[in-house]
Structure formats: C-alpha cells, structure tokens
Design a protein that fits this description.
The chain has helices at residues 2-11, 20-27, 32-46, 57-70, 83-95, 108-117, 191-212, 222-230, 242-250, 279-290, 292-300, 315-326, 340-358, and strands spanning 48-53, 75-80, 103-106, 122-123, 145-157, 182-184, 217-218, 236-241, 255-258, 263-273, 304-305, 330-333. By secondary structure, it is α/β, with parallel strands linked by helices. Strands 1, 2, 3, 4, 5, 6, 7, 8, 9, 10, 11 and 12 form a twelve-stranded mixed beta sheet that branches. Strand 1, helix 4 (57-70) and strand 2 (75-80) form a beta-alpha-beta unit. Helix 3 (32-46) packs across helix 10. The chain is elongated.
C-alpha cells in the first residue's frame, strides 16, 4: 500500500490534491525515507524556495546557507522585514492571489495577526521534526511551530550590583537601592503583559504606579539601555533579551542577568502558507529549521533552541532556564496569545501609569 502511495505521489502533481494540507498529509503517511525521497525529487523540479522572515539577518543567512549546502539543487531566497511590515506585505500578497512565499519564519507580531485575523492564509503542516518539541512550543493543529525562544531578562552591571541586591522578583525593584538606578523603555514592549498575567489588571496598575516613583530613566531600545548600564548611568534594566547579554559577556562586557519570577518568553515560529509555490522545497525548509541540524546552527548564534535534544550553547543560561522552567516561572507569548485589543489596553496602561508618571 505504501509503495502504491509513493508511485501515486510521484505520478501526480500537487494540483491533483484538493489542497496543500491533503498533499502534506499523504506525504506523512509514507515511511520517513520514502517521504524524504519524494520531497527531494519534487524540490529538484521546483529549483527554489522563498522564506519570509522577521528574524535577524545573520540568523537568516546562517540557516539559508546551511540549508543550501544540504540541498545544493535549491536556491534559497529570503525577504526580511519587521513584524508588522511583514504581515502587511504577506496579507497584500494573499489578497492579490499571487503567492510568492513558501515558508514564514517570524515572531508574534507577524504570525499572531495572521492566525487570529486571516487564518486562511496558513496551511496546517505537521512536520515530523515537531516530535522533540514540547507541547507549549507548538499548536496541536499544525499552524505554527516555535523555532527559538527570546527570553526577557533583567540586565544589570555585574561589578556594581552586590549579589544580595540582585532582584529575584519584580517587587524587589521597589527597594530603595534601585531608586534612580533603573532604565525602562518608553515603548511598552512585553512587560505589562507579564504583570497582568501574574497579578491581574489591578495588581499591575498598582505595581507600575509604585515603580514610577523610583526615579526611572526612560530610553527607547534595548541596545541603548544596555549601553546605559555599561556607562554607569543606571545599574539595571527590564525587558532585555538574554541572547544579547550572553553575546556581550563573550566580548568581556561586565553585564549579568536575572531570570526573574515571572519571566516572559517570546516565540519565533515557522508556519506554512496556504498556497506555497514550491511545496516540496517548502516542506524541506520548514523541516530543516526545526531539525537538530538547524537548531544547532541557531544555538551557535546564542539563540535558545526549541528542541529538547539540542543544548543551549551558553551553559549558564541553559542551567538557569532549566531551573526556571522547573519552578514554572515562564509566561509564554505565542501566535495564539496575540490579542490586538488587549495589547492596546496594556500599552495604554504602561504609558499612562509608568511613562507619563516618570517624566
């Protein structure tokens, strides 16, 4: 039966199937070796694959370069844009019925609106490479699968903050020691969502009012706030990405970080468009980003990989992440948690309660 299925797949093009989801489902019924053979044979005829991504340019280049070495018969092209821009471009392409994209690799600001407002832009794809990925990092239906984790930590000056003053939870930042020594972003970012998730709306509002009395230094951008710490203008800052701190530590910067309770995890995920022009190549690329080989490459860029069988390159970060996960400190932002109306309210809470009160 499996041999007959393989012959049918080889003889009939994708157009023979009702939709791409049915095509992928039939492929997944094949043994792994035959399935891979079918994808390679089809991809050789397609000759290229197009990735739309909001990830960092170095990450995109590293993944597409390694993918190209594994599948030299494919030309891997990509377009990189910021989250909301990528959504707008993708939506206009979908409306115009002229599909270009084969795989989406993006954050919540791209995939969240697609999933919540234009779900018919996506196809369900249950890649075999999803198996070693924990349930909280993928959806059951197969519309998205996380590829890496952005960990929102508290960064501080390693030489100027005594161990006993390192905050373990957010109320610790209300202590007199931190008055005049904290930098926060003028943009709400992920912080208000974290607070409301754990202490509710009223609790978050009360906390932000108290934090605003800490003589905060307001500045836009994570990189700028890390530089403020290094310059001694402040001693710590909220909502910095762990991989940025690890990279700067490797360069000798006197920076440290705390994975506080709770800690926000933001997911970058892959999704399959409803009508990929190169479906065989699309499946190969999607699988590759999730594969052990692909995840190890992302780990080399100091990312936090998603597979349980791939270690975080930074050993200390790996240890702290394991400890925090066991203690259930994490609040996860995935495409499914996207809530535009809720985000607008959270942004207003942050701006009115914290930013305006701190100026």
């Amino acid at each position: 039966m499996k041999t007959l299925l393989l012959i049918f797949l080889l003889l009939f093009p994708l157009s023979a199937w009702a939709n791409v989801e049915e095509f992928f489902a039939e492929l997944n019924r094949l043994p792994a070796t035959e399935r891979q053979q079918r994808l390679i044979e089809g991809a050789k005829k397609e000759g290229e694959v197009m990735l739309y991504s909001s990830s960092g340019i170095e990450e995109i280049r590293a993944i597409t370069k390694l993918f190209g070495k594994k599948y030299p018969f494919l030309k891997a092209r990509f377009m990189r844009k910021g989250g909301s821009q990528l959504f707008n471009v993708s939506f206009m392409e979908f409306k115009g019925q002229k599909p270009i994209v084969d795989v989406y690799w993006a954050g919540v600001s791209t995939l969240g609106p697609i999933l919540k407002e234009q779900k018919n832009m996506l196809a369900r794809y249950l890649s075999p490479e999803r198996a070693p990925i924990a349930g909280e990092y993928k959806d059951r239906g197969g519309y998205w699968t996380a590829t890496r984790i952005s960990v929102a930590i508290f960064a501080y000056h390693a030489k100027k903050v005594m161990p006993e003053k390192v905050p373990k939870s957010y109320p610790d930042l209300l202590e007199p020691f931190w008055k005049g020594k904290l930098a926060v972003d003028t943009n709400p970012g992920r912080f208000p969502a974290l607070l409301v998730d754990r202490v509710g709306w009223q609790g978050a509002e009360e906390y932000l009012k108290k934090l605003a009395q800490q003589d905060l230094k307001l500045h836009r951008g994570r990189s700028a706030r890390m530089q403020m710490i290094l310059a001694g203008e402040v001693l710590g800052s909220l909502d910095i990405n762990a991989d940025n701190i690890v990279e700067m530590q490797l360069q000798g910067a006197p920076l440290e970080y705390a994975i506080m309770d709770p800690t926000f995890l933001s997911l970058t995920s892959v999704s399959m468009p409803q009508k990929p022009p190169h479906p065989h190549a699309a499946a190969l690329l999607y699988d590759f980003i999730l594969s052990k080989e692909g995840q190890q490459e992302l780990s080399q860029e100091n990312n936090v990989p998603i597979r349980e069988d791939v270690e975080i390159r930074a050993r200390e970060l790996a240890r702290r992440m394991k400890e925090a996960r066991a203690q259930k400190r994490f609040v996860i932002q995935s495409p499914e948690t996207f809530d535009p109306a809720g985000e607008e309210k959270l942004d207003r809470l942050y701006l009115d309660t914290l930013v305006k009160k701190s100026r």
